[in-house]
Amino acid sequence: MAVVEGLGGAAAGTAASPCVETLRPPAAVKFFYSIGQFVESGYLAINTFIFFYYTAVLGLSGSLVGAALAISMTADAALDPLIGSWSDSVRSRFGRRLPMMLLAAPLTMIAMGLLFAPPSALTPIALFVWLTLTKGAVRAFASMYNIPYFALGGEMSDDYVERSRIVAYRLLSGIVVSVLITALAYSVFFAGEGGLQRPDSYPQFGWTIAALVLIGGLVCCAGVWRYAASLPQPVEPPQPMLRRFAGEVVEMARNPTFRVLFLSMLLFASAAGLHMALNNHNYVFVWKLRPETIQILTYTYLAGILAGVPLTPALLRKFEKKVVVAFGFVAVTAAWLVVPGLRGFGFLAPTGAAALPWLAATSLVFGLGSGFIFIAYPSMMADAADEHEHRQGVRREGLFFSGLGFAGKAAGGMGLLLGGFALDLLHFPREVGRDAHAAVSGDVLSHLVLAWGWLPAALVGVGAAIFAPYAITRARHEEISTELRRRRGLAGE
């Protein structure tokens, strides 16, 4: 039987209990929950490889690659809120989140493997279709897992700081699997002559990462199902999806806190997607790093996030979540302005090993700022779900986290789309995919490094301006939580 120290996440239409203490899951539950991050982190880790593979290796134009990713993003836009609403209404002996996660994990694995294994000798249009369909499938099935997974994290506790600790567990697991994927990529599959430009290495890499994603997804479900089953579920069958869905989306969109979080994350994730889409192009062609060296930069980025795992909850004991996010925006913007600007305007031009300290510093600061943001945002979205229940009398974790998940994935797709257009606008040569010694002009490289740094920094600035009105403080959240616990206690009498 699950160990539950209280009741959190109940709402109108869900089972309630007279126990109204703060809900805090045991450490073992948080550990197994964190393993589910393998799905999202695996999906995110492959994104830059996909972009480089289809443009610089397979020779598909950046615009076509960007268009394929935009199409998959549009399909995902329609699915995410449906998935969120569906997961809010599920009733089962595994709880309302796990059934979808169990279905989605193997489907994600299959789609991810096929994405890296297109049939040989496809025409450009056929390759475009293959990319569109397989990337769309990965997005859809990953959403089917991640949205209920994130919503489950929001339900596991109703404490202001404990929610950030749960996210920190998840983020730490994501760092571990990201390090593993990076090591496999640069030290095993793409090591040696040709490196990232060797096409026969990609299918093996794709299926290996897909298997890792499946294992993480299933281990998470096995480890948390008793606790998840103990959380409140709908006690009455929901109305048919088509009848209730539009009203639920309108209700969510009218929530000002949700809009602030959604739009600001959309801009930040677009910026991060653009920057990371152009990572390998910059590392290989501008800074002239070997694949074995590139992985060091991934490790420094992850080390920055890792530093944020204990630091963010510590900061949250002294500062509001809004302030911690502002620290993150400042750090990321500084990382993207300084070194790319010096290189783009000709004040700094090291290559190979000489470039490594500069790039490592950039990656470390980017990672630290991202850690603040990635931990605080899901915690704030759970707070927004509390606020919504306080105002509307119903709880929408699934829908709220579908918005956050869509913002991240859609924006990642938008970043890749912008990266593809940037390559074409810069007239980046496509023959580099067939000739590892092909030269790229200095002007193209200077513009490429600015597109990698300054353009995403500008997007972060806009996102920070949108985020400024966020208004749930620690004191306000405590008022909301106290009132919700009182209501649930009355409901359980």
CATH topology (level 3) name: Growth Hormone, Chain: A
What is the number of helical segments per DSSP (H or I, 4+ residues)? 16
Q: What would you give as the CATH superfamily?
A: MFS general substrate transporter like domains
Q: What gyration radius follows from the Cα positions, in whole Å?
A: 22 Å
Element-by-element helix/strand order: HHHHHHHHHHHHHHHH
How many domains would you count in the coordinates?
1
> From the 3D coordinates, which CATH architecture would you assign?
Up-down Bundle
Query: Share of helix among residues?
Result: over 70%
Number of strand elements: 0
**Mean pLDDT score:** 82
Which CATH first-tier class would you pick? Mainly Alpha
Oligomer: single chain
Give the N-to-C terminal Cα separation: 23 Å
- What class do helices, strands and sheet pairing give? mainly alpha
Strand content: under 5%
Largest sheet: none
Specify the overall morphology.
globular
Description:
The protein is built from 16 helices and no strands. The radius of gyration is 22 Å and the shape is globular. By secondary structure, the protein is mainly α. α5 (124-155) runs antiparallel to α14 (397-425), α6 (162-189) runs antiparallel to α13 and α12 packs antiparallel against α15 (442-467). It has one domain: MFS general substrate transporter like domains (Growth Hormone, Chain: A), CATH 1.20.1250.20.
